[in-house]
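Design a sequence for this backbone.
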């Protein structure tokens, strides 16, 4: 009797553990070549994207939403399909490959592919949404000549767009859009550079 009671309790515990809310997973959408302005390069170079760093708060799989009064909401049921730093880096790499078709774009680490000519290092400060208000991106970045280790250009970018759809799918679409705009600004900065081989 005691054994049967223990088995019954164990079964209830397992059921309770598996009855949590369904988790919805998201990925950032890269730029479509039909709605982006690409730049043909006079001479092909190899460009490395990364590393991309984020605040500790954004290292979680859970999607972060900024609320009023300095509060944040961390959703257990709405999550990124991969760690956000990886998702950002992969999407930025694809975006720059679309925007700079004349160059070879590599994602960090690129050791197995050999050296790169340029390295774009990105420090994301803010990447979130405020329901009913805005989608927000803030980042520091620098473009470095990998061979001479000279920083050729650096900048601080802030992008804020009105958030028309505060649902999680709508928020992810808005974040993808501002990441695409950030990619456009990096592409423009690269276009203006001259560097030695």
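Sequence:
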């Amino acid at each position: 009797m005691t054994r049967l009671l223990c088995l019954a309790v164990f079964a209830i515990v397992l059921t309770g553990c598996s009855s949590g809310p369904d988790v919805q997973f998201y990925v950032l959408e890269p730029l479509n070549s039909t709605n982006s302005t690409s730049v043909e390069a006079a001479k092909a170079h190899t460009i490395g994207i990364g590393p991309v760093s984020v605040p500790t708060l954004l290292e979680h799989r859970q999607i972060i939403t900024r609320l009023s009064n300095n509060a944040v909401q961390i959703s257990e049921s709405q999550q990124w399909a991969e760690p956000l730093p990886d998702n950002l880096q992969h999407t930025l790499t694809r975006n720059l490959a679309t925007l700079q078709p004349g160059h070879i774009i590599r994602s960090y680490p690129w050791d197995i592919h050999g050296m790169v000519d340029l390295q774009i290092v990105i420090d994301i400060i803010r990447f979130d949404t405020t329901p009913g208000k805005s989608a927000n991106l803030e980042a520091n970045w620098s473009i470095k000549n990998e061979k001479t280790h000279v920083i050729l250009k650096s900048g601080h970018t802030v992008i804020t767009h009105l958030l028309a759809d505060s649902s999680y799918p709508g928020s992810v679409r808005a974040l993808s859009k501002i990441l695409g705009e950030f990619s456009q600004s990096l592409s423009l900065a690269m276009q203006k550079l001259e560097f030695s081989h």
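Helices lie at 2-18, 84-99, 168-191.
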